[in-house]
Amino acid sequence: MSTSPDEPRPAPAPGAPAGQSPPEPVKAVPVRHPGRWIAAAVLVVLSAMFVHMLVTNPAFDWPFLFEQMFSSPVLVGVRTTVILAAVSMAIGVAIGIVVAVMRLSDNPVLVTVAWVYTWFFRAVPRIVLCVLFGNVAILYQTIEFGIPFDNYWLPLLGFSDGARFYSVPMETLLSPFVAAVIALSLSQGAYMAEIVRAGLLSVDKGQTEAAQALGMNQGLVLRRITLPQALRVIIPPTGNEATAIMKDTSLVSAIPLTTELFFQLQQIGARTFNLFPMLVAACLWYLAITSLMMVGQYYLERGFNRSSRSAASVRGAGQRA
């Protein structure tokens, strides 16, 4: 490459020998990804095929589906499902907190009982628990309240009558709804116990020691110090568990709980000999309910994280001051 005498020569690159011209600039060529375009094209075609099936396949019977989807029995089933999930989740959270505290106790009896409870109810499938509690009346016809083992030791004292104060028929006490709540709550409590225990263990032990040094008892430390800080770890998986228990309410049709959503849709399909549209309606209802729950979970987590960051910034400003 030649240059005119009047044209300024380019400065040599640092470290290059004298009289050597600088290297030509590198021309960057973007890397092509044909596999991505092929995968995108395949997904677009599959999506078009799926939409075409939804529109053209007569088995969906969309007019019948939407007519029955908002019928009175189905709306009653939706209400029962939401109430069942809310009550079971609330009881499960309460059980989980108690069992988690028992697992972290220094008492070996409490630790053993909590471990056995968690092991059993996490190991047994929920549908098996629903069927089991739905048939508890096989064991006892009535539930009686009184002094334990009175039929063994009272005759030794010369008393012929038992010490039973109150009795209620099992069929009256254990309705299908109550059996469903018990099955789902006990199962949910085992999972929540592990979530709460993980949250409590995530809090620095120095927080507890400092609170105890101020004279707080264990219950006050748990309510004021440990549990509020553990919520940042507990809330996200708890939201997932709430969504899971909402879906698992469909299992109580095995008890059977006749006012539950999935049972109602199955009955309509069996009565009209058109089952498949009712199964699709069940999918749509569960999608709608769980989607609303996910939106609520998102805003709850965002609000909690914002408050946690604000508290952390305030603490940091106080320490700097």
Automatic annotation (TrEMBL):
<comment type="similarity">
    <text>Belongs to the binding-protein-dependent transport system permease family.</text>
</comment>
<feature type="region of interest" description="Disordered">
    <location>
        <begin position="1"/>
        <end position="25"/>
    </location>
</feature>
<dbReference type="InterPro" id="IPR000515">
    <property type="entry name" value="MetI-like"/>
</dbReference>
<dbReference type="InterPro" id="IPR035906">
    <property type="entry name" value="MetI-like_sf"/>
</dbReference>
<feature type="transmembrane region" description="Helical">
    <location>
        <begin position="37"/>
        <end position="60"/>
    </location>
</feature>
<dbReference type="InterPro" id="IPR043429">
    <property type="entry name" value="ArtM/GltK/GlnP/TcyL/YhdX-like"/>
</dbReference>
<protein>
    <submittedName>
        <fullName>Amino acid ABC transporter permease</fullName>
    </submittedName>
</protein>
<feature type="transmembrane region" description="Helical">
    <location>
        <begin position="123"/>
        <end position="143"/>
    </location>
</feature>
<keyword id="KW-0813">Transport</keyword>
<feature type="transmembrane region" description="Helical">
    <location>
        <begin position="275"/>
        <end position="300"/>
    </location>
</feature>
<keyword id="KW-0472">Membrane</keyword>
<keyword id="KW-1133">Transmembrane helix</keyword>
<keyword id="KW-0029">Amino-acid transport</keyword>
<feature type="domain" description="ABC transmembrane type-1">
    <location>
        <begin position="78"/>
        <end position="297"/>
    </location>
</feature>
<feature type="compositionally biased region" description="Pro residues">
    <location>
        <begin position="10"/>
        <end position="25"/>
    </location>
</feature>
<dbReference type="Pfam" id="PF00528">
    <property type="entry name" value="BPD_transp_1"/>
</dbReference>
<keyword id="KW-0812">Transmembrane</keyword>
<feature type="transmembrane region" description="Helical">
    <location>
        <begin position="163"/>
        <end position="187"/>
    </location>
</feature>
<feature type="transmembrane region" description="Helical">
    <location>
        <begin position="80"/>
        <end position="102"/>
    </location>
</feature>
